Every structure is written in C-alpha cells, then in structure tokens.
Amino acid sequence: MEYCYDCGTKLVIKELEHEGLIPYCNKCKKFVFPIFSAAVSMIILDKDEKNILLIKQYGKDFYRFVAGYINKGESAEEAVYREIDEEVGLKPFMIKPLKTAYFEKSNTLMYNFLAKCDNLDVKTNYEIDSYAWFPIEKAFDALKDAKLALEFFNYYYNNIR
Ligand SMILES: [Zn+2]
Questions:
Q1: CB 125 within 8 A of CB 68
Q2: By residue range, what is the domain housing residue 95?
Q3: One domain for residues 83 and 147
Q4: Cα 36 to averaged position of ligand 1 atoms, centre (Å)
Q5: Residue 113 CA to its chain's centroid (Å)
Q6: Among residues 146, 55, 161, which one has the least CA distance to residue 98?
Q7: How confident is the model over 115-153, as pLDDT tens digits?
Q8: Residue 27 has what pLDDT?
Q9: Are both 81 and 102 inside the same structural domain?
Q10: 17 with 69, same domain?
C-alpha cells in the first residue's frame, strides 16, 4: 500500500510504538493499516463426514465450496450460517473454524469452516447453478480446479478428520 486511502498522499514509513514501522500519511496525520475483505468458505458435510456438498456458480464449470463475504457488523460464524442458509437452504448443527488463507486476486482473507448437517435437503437460490453431494474421497478430484478450496480440503482431510 503506497498511497493514503483517504487523500491519496504518498505514504511514508514511520515508527509506531509497539507496532514497528507502519505506513503513515503526513497530510491526514495518521497511520494507515492494511484494508482487505473477509469471507467465509464452508466444507459442508453430512453428520458422519462421509459426503461433501459442492456447488457450481457464476457460469463456471468447476466445483467449489459455498462461500461469501462477511458483512460489516457480522461475526464469521454468523456469516457461515447465513451463507449456507441463503445459498443451499441447510441449517448446520455444528460448525467449526479450520484454517484461514489470503486470496490475492480479490484481496480477501478467507476463513474456512467445517459445517455438519443432518438434514441434507438442499434448496439452492439464484446464485447457485448446480450442486452435488460427493463421497468425501472424490472431493480431491472434484476440487482440482479450485485451488484455495483444494488447499482447505487437504488441510481438513489430513489434519482434522
Ligand atoms: Zn491521507
């Protein structure tokens, strides 16, 4: 980040007590911390963790996780329940944070959650082109074109399961 978000002035680097060297705007007289979006993505499973729900959307021909941005004022957990309800009409009985990763393309910090459901009766909204439940071992192949989702799934499969 090179310029002030508010006034466009070129930032200088200045020492901030306890924080180290931080970009600073001489015009606004304030330190400028990074700004990025936050989003959640969900590994949605049945209660026995045998099947995983994947979706296709935005006209793209590959499977991905149900995901969405965290609204201002909302917790990550609230976003998980809201997005799952909106996009696929499910109500998880248990959610659990697994891993986070920064996604450069959209300047987003992605929080990946596990979400377990006992009622698997999916009702998609307009954002979803199609969906499928996969046996969990098939997810590696199904997600091969969704790099970040595959990274999260690998973490779940090798460390959590
Ligand atoms: Zn400024």
A1: no
A2: 37-160
A3: yes
A4: 18
A5: 8
A6: 161
A7: 999 999 999 999 999 999 999 999 999 999 999 999 999
A8: 97
A9: yes
A10: no
- What is the 8-class DSSP label of residue 64? B
- Interval between CA 29 and ligand 1 midpoint (Å): 7
User: How far, in Å, is the centroid of ligand 1 from the Cα of 32?
Assistant: 8
Same-domain pairing of 71 and 54: yes
> Is there a single domain that holds both residue 91 and residue 123?
yes
Report the amino acid identity of residue 102: Y
In the predicted model, is pLDDT for residue 1 greater than 90?
Answer: no
**31-89 pLDDT per residue, tens:** 999 899 999 999 999 999 999 999 999 999 999 999 999 999 999 999 999 999 999 99
**Nearest partner of 153 among 78, 83, 98, 90, judged by Cα:** 98
Q: What's the CA-to-centroid distance between 38 and ligand 1, angstroms?
A: 24
Number of domains present in the structure of the chain: 2
